[in-house]
Amino acid sequence: MKRNASALAVGVLATGALLLPAAPAAAGQFHGVDVVDDFDCDGVRDEVVLGGFYDVGSAERAGVILVRSGSGDRLTISQNSPGVPGTAETDDGFGSSYAGTDLDGDGCDELIVGAPGEDKAAGMITIIKGSPAGLVLSRSTAFTQNTPGVPGTSERDDDFGAVIVAGELGSGQPYLLVGSPGEAVGSKANAGSVYYLRGGVWRAFNQDSPGVAGTAESWDRFGATLAASDRHIVVGAPGETLSGRFDAGQVHVFDHKIAQGVPHPIASISQDSAGVSGTAESGDGFGLDVSVISYRPSASAPIGALVAVGSPGEALGSDYETGMAHVLAVTPTGKVTEVSDINQDTSGVADSTQAWDRFGTSLVLAVNGSDVTATPSTALLVVGVPMEELSGDTTGAFHLFLNLKSPGDRDVWLPNATDGLYDGYWNLTATTTSLITGEQDGSPSREFTWTELLGGELSWPL
């Protein structure tokens, strides 16, 4: 397995000694697209651990969610917890997804928990009130597609709540996005829809909504992945069929303006789009993860979006599912320009492509600088490689790219030499201070400060 001497490498030897970057980059003031989860309003991030596969009593995979406050208090929540709507039942998957944001404007974040397996996978979300005393379970509210005001009807295998994203617009108004990738659109099973709550109004949109490119088709799974900033919404449809190529994948970009009753669509992107590298092929899974931040390519340019798209099923040469990531700039009018396409055979990028690495399974964008809007010199990207093999063991790895136009320049390579993190895959979150890696199997999240990552102070695993 090759190692590029030009790439920055941070890792751990068998003895525990650090491999330091030859020329450490200076850490800056980082901005992430996700709000910090602060349910007790103390100004300290509260840790959330997903446990959607946990058993609750005799109810297998009923699910729990674990919250540890900044002061160290721990709370385990299930649908059998007093005040939480519903009952823990087999395969509910409560705690399979979550988001946190201040929905009621009192300064404390609410915890929004997904249970996509509820009621034969019709799905449900639960909003748990935050307060200075912590989460108030007695003030929890559940929403399904049968809840008054929520469009549609709860149906088996809708998977409502499979993914949740929440945040605030620049005005401070909160919003909530809920993916329902199993939603049938007309007779098209698993076409997928997204539900958007803002200003007390729920709206649903899919590929048959006004202005959205394409057509809702069976197994598109529109809404299987979501990302949002204060300006934009990105929706992945990784099951999209393009010219007979199944699971090729497609991504849609919206802004938060409401047009014809739904968020305003501004771009649709696939590997068949002009200027986008590669070719849409069966199994690519373009859009299996997405991320977005505000971006301008120059000081005089209008603020648009920088979108990262994972395509972990991408085959390179004769190697299947090696994976690829695309970084795309989108103007406010919907013009799409590819900044780069990245894989482990890109010049200067550490390691080499191997079958089944699935590079791009997870990714997140962040901003290094004093401005929350990224520029070519301040945007960075972290990409997960969950099936990376090191010394014959599948242990996983990350890449941190600091130059997105030339990703092999200052590629920080983060191999995990001692602990198999791949089992639960990763949910990556970028905050102003840290990269947070969370898993879907109840494992504790891991937090790495940008100073550690860029300054060679990392000790992995924590």
Write a structural description.
The protein is mainly β. The chain has a domain at 31-223: Integrin alpha, N-terminal (Methylamine Dehydrogenase, Chain H, 7 Propeller), CATH 2.130.10.130. 2% of the residues lie in helices and 37% in strands. It contains two helices and 32 strands. The chain has helices spanning 118-121, 450-455; strands at residues 8-9, 11-12, 18-19, 30-31, 47-51, 64-68, 74-77, 97-101, 110-115, 124-129, 136-143, 163-168, 174-180, 193-198, 201-205, 225-228, 232-237, 250-259, 262-269, 289-295, 304-311, 324-330, 336-342, 362-368, 379-385, 389-390, 393-394, 397-401, 411-415, 427-430, 434-438, 446-449. The strands form nine sheets. It has a six-stranded mixed β-sheet. The protein has a four-stranded antiparallel β-sheet with strand order 8-9-10-11. A four-stranded antiparallel β-sheet has the order 12-13-14-15, with no helix packed on it. The longest helix has 6 residues, at 450-455.
CATH superfamily grouping of the domain at 31-223 = Integrin alpha, N-terminal
In DSSP terms (H or I, runs of 4 or more residues), the helix count works out at: 2
CATH-defined topology of the domain at 31-223:
Methylamine Dehydrogenase, Chain H
Please report which band the strand proportion falls in: under 5%, 5-15%, 15-25%, 25-35%, 35-45% or over 45%. Answer: 35-45%
Q: Outline the biggest β-sheet.
A: 6 strands, mixed
Separation of the first and last Cα atoms: 26 Å
Widest β-sheet, arrangement of strands: 1-29-28-25-24-4
Shape: globular
DSSP helix fraction = under 10%
Rg, nearest Å: 21 Å
Structural class: mainly beta
Number of strands: 32
Poorly predicted spans: 1-28, 420-424, 457-462
CATH architecture of the domain at 31-223: 7 Propeller
What's the CATH first level of the domain at 31-223? Mainly Beta
The oligomerization state is single chain
Provide the residue-averaged pLDDT. 87
Keywords: Glycoprotein, Repeat, Signal
Signal peptide: 1-27
Region (Disordered): 76-99
Pfam families: FG-GAP
